[in-house]
Amino acid sequence: MANVTIRNLNKNYENGFHAVKDVNLEIRDKEFMVLVGPSGCGKTTTLRMVAGLEEITSGEILIGSDVVNDLPPMDRNIAMVFQNYALYPHKSVYQNMAFGLQMRKYPKDEIEKRVREAADILGIGPLLERKPRQLSGGQRQRVAVGRAIVRHPEVFLFDEPLSNLDAQLRVQMRVELKRLHERLETTAIYVTHDQVEAMTLGDRVVVMKDGWVQQVGEPLELYGKPANKFVAGFIGSPAMNFVDVMISDAGGALWADAAGLRLKVPPHMVERVRAHAGERVTLGVRPEALHLANGSDQPDYSFATAVDVVEPLGNEILVNFRAGGAPMVARVDPAVRVKARQGIRVALDPERVHFFDEKSGAAI
Amino acid sequence: MAAPAERGRVSRLTRLLESENLLAATLLTPGVVILVLFIAYPFVMALWFSLTSIRVGDPGEFVGLANFTKAWNDTIFQTAFKNTVFYTFWATIFKLALGMWLALLLNRSFRFKRIIRASMLLPFIIPTVLSAFAWRWMFDPTFSVMNWVLFHSGLITDRLPFLSDGDWAMWCAVLVNTWRGMPFFAITLLAGLQTISPDLHEAAALDGANAWHRFWHVTWPLLIPVTLVVVVFSVIQTFSDFQLIYVLTGGGPANSTHLIATYAYQIGVASGLLGEGAALSLFMFPVLFAVVWVQLRFMKRMEGA
Amino acid sequence: MLIERKWKKWIFFYLPMAAFIVFTLFPFYWMAVTAMRPDEELYRTWRQASATPFWTLAPTLEHFRNLLQTTAFPHWLWNTMLIALVSTAISLVCGMFAGYALARLKFRGSEFLGTAIFVTYLVPQTLLFIPLADIIRDMHLGNTPWALMLTYPTFLIPFCTWLLMGYFKTIPKELEECARIDGATRFGAMIRIIFPVAIPGILSAGIFAFTLSWNEFIYALIFMSSAELKTVPVGVVSELIRGDIFFWGQLMAGALLGSIPVAIVYSFFVEYYVTGLTGSVKG
Questions:
Q1: Are A227 and A321 within one domain?
Q2: What pLDDT, on the 0 to 100 scale, is given for residue B84?
Q3: Which chain C positions have a beta carbon within 8 Å of B284's beta carbon?
Q4: Touching check for A13 and chain C: CB below 8 Å?
C-alpha cells in the first residue's frame, strides 16, 4: 500500500502543447482521489504519467518513497482500468485476468486462486471461459476491474472507466466501485469529466483546467467553498448562477448592483468585499440557494423578475429567469406553481452568496 | 514499490528495448537492411552501370551519357518506348472500363455471388507466365481456337495474324493484360462501391435520376479516390511489364513488340551489355517517378482533408 | 433495392455477367482441355473438318505423365513452394516489425521512413534486375534458392509493412498500454498482445505475399540457371520449349499443375486475399 506524491509535474508535447502545468498533489495511502475537469484539462495526461505511459517533461512522481520517473510501467506496481476496457480480445476472461500475474511469474495455483477470488467479488465467476466479445458492456467493465484487482497493486488507476456505460449502469457501477474501494483499501486515482462521479466517489477531488490544478478538497468543501469561479461553476448541477455586479458603498452598507437588481452584501462578507468597493465583481449563487420570495424575506435579498421557462422534474422544479442581465435558474419546491411569463419575486439565502474577482476569478 | 527481485525478471537486453528509439531501430533494421541491400544499392549501381560500358566479364569504363544517347537513337528502343506507352495507355483504359463494369455487376445481389466473385480473381492469382502460355496457344496461327470460332461463325474467311503481325500482336498483348488486370480493378473498385451507402442511390432514384445519372452523379464522384490509386498501381505495373510480352511474342516479330523491360532484358542479359541494359531500364524511371510523385501528393492531400 | 424490369435485367445483368465469366475463365478451360488432349488431336489445324477445339474425344493423362517423369517439374513445384513460403515468412516478420514501429512508436524520421518504404513498394522488379544480378553473383547467391528468398522480400516487405501498419493502427493502443502496466515490456506487449490480435491482417498480408512470390518471373529467370533449381514459371518457359518447338500438351499440363497449388491456397483464404488486395492500394 502506498501514497503517491506528485511534485511540480509538467508535460509539454512535441507540438508545443503544455498539457500539465506545475501540478503538486499528495495522494494519501488508501485514499480515493478523483481528478475531474473538462476535456483537455490535463487530468488524463497526469494519470498516464503516473502509469508510466507518458514521459514526464519535468517534476517528480513518487510511489511510496521511490521516484518512479524513469521506471517503465511494468515495474510500477500499479493497475489501470481504461475507458474502453482494453480487454485482450483473443484471450478468455480468465486469461485476461491471469495475464498480469503470468507476466510476473506467479505460480499457477496462486493465479487460479486470485482470479477466482476476484471473480467472486465481482460476480463474474460464470463468465471466466468467455471471450470479451461475448460479454455485455457492464460485464466487460467488471472484467476490466477484475483484471486490475487480481494484481493486488499498490495503486489503482481509473481512466474514465464508466463513461462507456449507459446512464443506469453507470450509477450502479459507481456504487460498486465505491464499495470495492472500501473493501480493498488501496490507493486509487480516478479520472473523470463527470462532476457527479467525482463528488460521489472521491475521498478528495482535484479540479483541473487548462493543465492547472484549480482546487483540491473534499467534495463538500469544493461545493461549499469553491476557490474560484471555475470550480464554482463546474461543481454542482444545475451550475451556479453568475451575475456581474458593481459594488457600491451607500448608507453604511455595501451593495451589489446590476441592471434591475440591487442586493445587499451579507454582513459576513462585508469585510472581504469592501476592498472591491467601486469595482465590478461576479456574484455567484447556487440554484438551491434561491427560492420564490414570501412575506418573511428581507427585500434587501430579493428581486423582481419574470419566469422564462419552467422545468418540472418531479422532486423539484427548475425555474429559469433573467436577472441583472444574466440567465439564472432557481431550484424550488415542487409544490410551487408558476407559469412562463409570470411575474415573480426571487429571494436568495444571504448565507450562501459567493463573490469572485472579475479578472482572476478567485473567490473573495 | 515493486520488489527488486521483480524488477530483475526481464533481462537487461529486453529492458533496453523499453526505449522507443532503440525498439524502433531494432524493429526496422531487418526490413531496412533487405531494402537497402536489394533496392537502394542496386539502384545506385544501375545509375553507375548506365554511365559505363560495362558488359559481362568486362568492367568497362566511364562513357558519360553515351548509353542514353545510343538508346535514344536506337529505332528498336524508339519502338519499344512507343509500345510501352501504347500498351500502358490502352490496357489501363480497358482495365478501368471493364473493371468498373464488372464491379458494378458484382455489387448487385445474385445467386452464387461469392463463388463467382472468387473465380473472377483467378486471372490475377495464376502466374502470368502460365496463363500467357494459354493465350499464346489460343492465338496459335495454325491451331488457333480463335480463328476456328471466327471462321465457323462466318466472321472471317482467312486466318487472322494474331501474333505474327506487330500491330496485331500489340493489341493481343493489350487484350491479355486487360484480362489479367481487370479483376484487380474490379475487386478494389467493388470494395470502394460497398462503402457507398445504398441510401444515396435510393435518394437519387426518388429525385428521378436514371441508372446512368445515378452512376455519373453519385457513384463515380465517390469512387474517384480509390480509382486514382488503382490506376497508379496499374500504370506502374503495366509500364514496367515484362513477363507477358516475354511469353507471348518474345519481342517479335522483328523486334516490333518489345517493351522497355523486355528490350532491356535482351540487351542487358541476353547480350550481356550491362551498361546499355541498365540505361534502357532507367528510361522507365522518370515516368514511374512522376506517377509515384502524383500518388504521394494525392495521399498528402487526402490526409489533409 | 430498386425495382427492375425482367428484360432489363437480362440485358444489363445476366448477359454481361455471362460474357465476363466466359472471358475470364475460358483460358483456364482451354488449358485443361489442351492438357488432356492426345497429340494427334492437338495438332489438327483449325480448317480441318474434324477439328473439335472445345472438347476432346480421347482424354489422356499422357502429358501429365511425361511432365512428371521426363522433366524436373516436381522439383520446380517444390522449389516454388519453398521459395514462396520462405520469402513470405521473411517478409511477414520484417513487415510486422516495421509496420508496428511505424504505426505505434514515436521516433525521429518515422514519417520519412514510412514514405521511403511506400516508394520502394512502387519500384518494379524490371527497373533493377541488371545490377541486382551482379550483386547476387558477388554475394555468391546465384543459382541458389537464397537468391530468390532474399530478393522477393524487396517487393513483399513494403507491401506487408504498408498493409500491417494500417491494420495495427485500427487496434486500440490501450491494449498494449494495459499489457505494459500488466507487466509486459513494449516488445512483449507487441508479441503477446498486438500480433495475436492482428492475425487476420497478418493472414491477408501472408496470402497476398505468397501469391506474389508464386507469380514472380524475372528474378527467377535471371538468377537461377540449373534446370533442377528453377521455379515453375521459369521451368515451364525455358525447359518445355526446345528451340522453336512448343510441346503444347506438356506446357498446358505444366501451366495447370503450376496453377493449382496457388489456386487452392487462394480458395481457402479468398476473403483474406481480397482484404490483402484491397488493402494493398489503400493509403
A1: no
A2: 95
A3: 124, 126-127
A4: no
**Residues B217, A177: Cα–Cα separation, whole Å:** 55
- On whether the pTM is more than 0.95, the answer is no
Interatomic CA distance for residues A108 and A112, integer angstroms:
6
Chain B to chain C, count of Cβ pairs less than 8 Å apart?
302
Inter-axis angle of helices C153-169 and C73-104, nearest 10: 40
The total number of structural domains in chain A stands at 2
A14 interaction partners in chain C (CB closer than 8 Å): 106
Residue type, C249: G
Instruction: Answer yes or no: do A221 and A341 share one domain.
Output: no
Shortest CA gap B302–chain A (Å): 22
On the 0-12 / 13-18 / 19+ scale of CB atoms within 10 A, A104 is middle
**Phi then psi dihedrals of residue B159, to 5 deg:** -70, 150
Min CA distance, A75 vs chain B (Å)? Answer: 6
Closest residue, chain B, to C12 (C-alpha): B105
Q: What pLDDT shows up at residue B4?
A: 40
Range of the domain at A298: 241-357
Which secondary structure element, helix H or strand E, spans residue A244, and what is its range? strand A241-250
Least Cα distance to B107 among C12, A282, C210 occurs for: C12
| Residues A107 and A132 grouped into a single domain | yes
Contact of A80 with chain C, judged by CB distance below 8 Å, is answered with yes
Residue owning grid cell 467472486? A120
Q: How far is the C-alpha of C181 from the C-alpha of A148, rounded, in Å?
A: 10
- Cβ–Cβ contact A49 with C under 8 A: no
Which cell goes with C159? 507491401
- Whether A307 shows a pLDDT value over 70: the answer reads yes
Q: Where are the domains of chain C?
A: 64-280
Domain-terminating residue out of A234, A256, A272: A234
Give the per-residue pLDDT at C217: 93
> What would the pLDDT profile of C62-105 be if each residue is shown by its tens digit?
889 988 988 889 999 999 999 999 999 999 999 999 999 999 99
Residues in chain A with CB shorter than 8 Å from the CB of B23 are none
Assess if residue A78 is contained within a domain. Answer: yes
Residue A206 confidence (pLDDT) = 96
Q: Any idea what DSSP says for residue A130?
A: S
Whether residues A107 and A208 fall in one domain: yes
CB contact under 8 Å between C175 and A88, yes or no, is: yes
Q: What are the pLDDT digits (tens) for A189-239?
A: 999 999 999 999 999 999 999 999 999 999 999 999 999 999 999 998 889
Q: Is the pLDDT of residue A293 over 90?
A: no
Residues A178 and A293 reside in one and the same domain: no
Same structural domain, A210 and A262: no
Mark whether A115 and A157 lie in a shared domain: yes
pLDDT at B304 exceeding the cut of 80: no
Q: Is residue A362 part of a domain?
A: no
Closest CA in chain B for residue A104: B6
Residue-range domains of chain B with CATH:
82-259+288-304 (1.10.3720.10)
- Is there a contact between A79 and C181 if contact means CB atoms under 8 Å apart? yes
Using a CB–CB cutoff of 8 Å, tell me whether C218 touches chain A: no
**Extended beta strands in chain C, E state:** 241-242, 245-246
Write down the residue that cell numbers 540505361 correspond to.
Answer: B279
Q: Neighbouring chains of C at 3+ CB pairs within 8 Å? A: A, B
Mean pLDDT of the region A18-25: 93
Instruction: Enumerate the residues of chain A whose CB falls inside 8 A of the CB of residue C188.
Output: 103
Asked if A249 and A210 sit in the same domain, the reply is no
Q: Are A317 and A311 in contact (CB under 8 A)?
A: yes
Q: What is the CATH number of domain C64-280?
A: 1.10.3720.10
> A17 and chain C: CB distance < 8 Å anywhere?
no
* Range scoring the smallest mean pLDDT among B96-110, B129-143, C21-35, C236-250: C236-250
Q: How far is C129 from chain B (nearest CA, A)?
A: 8
Would you state the cell numbers that stand for residue C27, as one nine-digit string? 483460358
Distance CA(C30)–CA(C63), nearest Å, equals 15
